[in-house]
Amino acid sequence: MIGLTLFFGLLAIVHYAVAEQVPLRPTQKQPNIVFVLTDDQDLHMDSLSYMPLLKKHIADEGLSFKRHYCTVALCCPSRVSLWTGKAAHNTNVTDVNPPYGGYPKFISQGLNDAYLPLWLQDAGYNTYYVGKLFNAQTVDNYNKPAAAGWTGSEFLLDPYTYEYLNATFTRNGETPISYEGQYSTDLVAEKSFAFLDDALADQKPFFLTIAPTAPHSNVHIGSNIIDGNFSENTNVQSPPIPAERHKHLFKDVKVPRTKHFNPDEPHGVSWIGRLPRQNHTNVKDNDQFYRSRLRALQAVDEIVEELVCRLDKAGVSEETYFFFSTDNGYHIGQHRLQPGKQCAFEEDINIPFMVRGPGIPKGQTTDTVSSHTDLAPTFLKLAGGKLRDDFDGAVMPLAGVQLERDASKNEHVNVESWGIIMSEGKHGAVLYPNHTYKALRVIGDGYNYLYTVWCSGEHELYDLLTDPYETHNLIPQKHPSNNIENPSHPIYQSEVVPPGLIIQTHTDNLFEQVPRSIHHILTRLDALLMVLKTCKVSACTHPWEVLHPKGDVTNLKEALHPDFDDFYEVQQQRVKFDKCEKGYILESEGPVDVRPYLEGIGG
């Protein structure tokens, strides 16, 4: 048995060089970078359609990524991965509160000395941040120590971060100031524009992040910091509060009534598969919650336009990249879920991401698969900084469709979750334990899958080509342990041959089509997830090369060749958990060794 350690080391050397060579069209000097980062904004409930200024100034003038993903659908772990370029299992920040997450965990893991703003400063940039940085950054710990790497900062602080009319900020690590009665998003705008003026007055290039809490729910937190004792009574959540000027908007708008909205039959496994159907009052209240989110985003839309106008007026638009995204997605009513996030369903992990700037095609979209772990490498590459050899992500092809990106990276996203989940709406705000899983999104030419393994031992597989709303789990729920160890169930043997997965073998100058079953697909996905659940560096971007070091297999279709059946179906260990934990504890996450396919092995 050959472990992953040796292959991680070898592949890191090879593919670090590859990652640095992804072409980006350079500007004549180091470009400025502006990044607007919302909180909990959906893509699949159509929130972008209610932001006309964002469309006008960014989407229509730039490139939109249709398949950009967060790797943890929860605020703090997602943001830490974004700023470090590392998967959550490598940052070990997996929750919003201690002991497994939040600002104190970010500090204790040593990440305050190794994240993007510091690297940008090393590259010659002034760096500015306004808004929410991390959860559990509080009025007590904001300077113990202060968040490093920012030339200027105005951080929102807990326990007031999510109170739209009771915000508290610390400016450059100074004593916090309360702004009771003032609208939080407008304060973020005002402070951001002041830093923009500072940045424009300096000769250095600048990086400015603007991070309002919209459209996150309004949250009243009961204590300054929550440490290991989160419960239903820890906070009070209510719909986001819009600015007074926007309260009248969208009176008749409802959550899109898609096929998976409050369905007659439950979807999913674990606690999700036991959710009751929402009654009329519940649905009505959730529609109101949805309208409040859209209204809260209007002040963000105004920030986008004002930023573009100020950049134009200063004459720096042509040398500035403007990014827009969010930390994670959101669901309301899909699969019977109350308002919230943290699931591996598409609503929670597939998120808005768009950019305009030098060399970026205008008004285009791309199907390139990317994730938040790619942002730190991408920002650093744009800034002309030296890429690090410990990134789990890779530089994104911002010039879009005319650039080819390595197909093995384009194919997959590793999704993780640990601990507990709590809904945010008026109904069913129940705390569910054991919301721990490993998930894999694989999207290629002719195939599109979500595969999830829960700590309870339950499994899910959805084919999004035929089931885009993820309503039909292809793994039979009545099968013993709902696992893939016993492929005798008839559904496993059914021939599943999407157009992109027709496998051909060549014998005696003849091509023969070989049908592949669900079981064949599952075993490949499980092996790929086995690599990704503990991956580091190039194993995260090129996981197939851990399984096939010769480089002759780079995607799912190639791995489905019948010559590899024994290798995947007999020789590999399976993804499983030994215990459900509230955080990342490697000893509880089952086997970690992956057998590579070498000559004389599996053939």
Automatic annotation (TrEMBL):
Gene3D superfamilies: Alkaline Phosphatase, subunit A (3.40.720.10). Its EC number is 3.1.6.1. The keyword Repeat does not apply. Residues 31-384 form the Sulfatase N-terminal domain. Keywords: Glycoprotein, Hydrolase, Signal. Residues 1-19 form the signal peptide. It catalyses: an aryl sulfate + H2O = a phenol + sulfate + H(+). Pfam families: Sulfatase (PF00884). PROSITE patterns: SULFATASE_1. It is an enzyme of class 3 (hydrolase). PANTHER family: N-ACETYLGLUCOSAMINE-6-SULFATASE FAMILY MEMBER (PTHR43108), SD21168P (PTHR43108:SF8). This is Arylsulfatase. It comes from Zasmidium cellare.
